[in-house]
Specification:
This protein is mainly beta and about 70 residues long. The protein has a domain of about 30 residues. Strands 1-2-3 form a three-stranded antiparallel sheet, with no helix packed on it. Strand 2 and strand 3 form a beta hairpin. The longest helix is centred in the middle third of the chain and has 5 residues.
Amino acid sequence: MDPKREPNIVREHSFPAGRMPRGRTGSEPNAVRRLSSADLFAGDSQLEIEHQDVLYRLRVTSLGKLILTK
């Protein structure tokens, strides 16, 4: 694990109902933000995602697939 990373940090974000931020890359105005699973998991095999006050778990299987459960 990279010592510069701080695993398991919870950052809270609030967005108005129905309005998610748009990540943009390059000069294309409608580009979709892309995240690397390696960056998301930061050496762990699972993480939790809070969405609309519901907690989800995203995990990597032994075959390298992603599974999202409630």
